Amino acid sequence: MTVAVPDKRQFVTFMSWSEIFRLNFGTITDQIVENANFCFFVWVNSLWQTVFINRIVFQFWARWTYCFEAYILGNRWFYT
After folding, report:
1. Is pLDDT above 60 for 77?
2. Looking at the domain assignment, is residue 4 inside a domain?
């Protein structure tokens, strides 16, 4: 006869201590304001990174294509 032993994995929580603390002691408005501030910070940060990275990539791409097109158009023998 075997005794059913409860699996310990069902007692493992997937929440961090900050989430537990916020659920126990934080109000709904605090969570909304904190979430809004975090989302705004992530949006601004991603916007700045997107503009910065796109400027770098576009500069390299534009310079390379400009040099390539100038080389092609400047050498008419390529088309003959």
Report:
1. no
2. no
